[in-house]
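Here is one such tokenized protein:
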Amino acid sequence: MILLASRKLRVESFATRHVPALRAFNERLAAGGADWRFPEEPTPEWLPRVAGSEVFQELFVLVEGDEVRGAYVLKRQPVALRGEVRQIGNLYMPLSEGTINRAYSLVGARLFSDAMQREPLLFALGMGGGNTQVTGLVRALGWPVYPVPFFFKVVNANRFLRQIRYLRTSRLRSRLLDLAAFSGIGWAVAAAAGTVLTRRPRGVGDLRAEEVERFGEWTDDLWHSCAGAYSFAAVRTAEVLNRVHPPHRKGLSRLKVTRAGRAIGFAVLQDEQSLASETLGQMRVGTVVDVLAKPEDAEAVMWLAAQTLEKRRVDLLISNQSHPAWGSALRRAGFIEGPTNCVFAASRQLADLIKAVDPQGRELHLNRGDGDWPWGINLRTTGSNP
């Protein structure tokens, strides 16, 4: 094995001249059984750099001669630390030749090192959970790692029981689940659970949910009223949200929640037929992608978000939420917490800033809207986790 230190490697901004080598890199990863491929166009489909916007993506490749050996995406964005706005970086899609060739086993560390040089205030989100190679790497770098809890609610029990591959791990289990679906036991249990677990929020008569095409000025007022309630939260002004969740994005909808005519929160929802997922099978899945409200209004916003998705006849509802108020809101909307494959890791410099305003790390506001969802899922080459 040739040691990485002896190789002439350099990281460059992804450009048109790299495209053939990048495609060959993706082909090698796919042949080696890798789950992901890197975008093959230098200009990002989602969040390209535009004048006047603080939120954009930069794509980088690690090259050896004329070959690409690694790549990553750096999303630039503003976040608020207890209301104080800082510009930071979000690293995702770190792909390395080392996953299929041990001679390049240190490429992953080189990618993270390069990203930290470009932006010391750096975080990563998702990463497949707490036991993956990427998570092991950030732990080795001394980054604190926080789980982002996963919640689900079964709406169509028969469809869920017949499709949920996460539970259908043996022939016996599959037969028992099919029996539960055929006999109606599963439907009865799900209906009872929904009745027992779901709690209507107070003052429901004053609440309204309105689907809007894009985020307007009301969003800025909402953001400024909420920012200080969280120790860490990505800026969610109208300009940022219309970039991150653009009006033309297929499958996404935006819910404006009001109480007695005053905006108290929003939810970004996704409703689509899942692909042949390695855990979900084929179900119509409703995802609460992104939310914002004061913690005391989380219950009202989540209840209306869940109600909206259930009316669309989805089979399953899912969401990842880090803040305890949003976790409580999900439980009161009838959700159950399950095993998560999403974690938040912060560079030591960023972690120090978070610790200064939130020593226990309990008031972070993170969800799927803070990562590359749903853009990134299109780069998966195999079935995806929920």
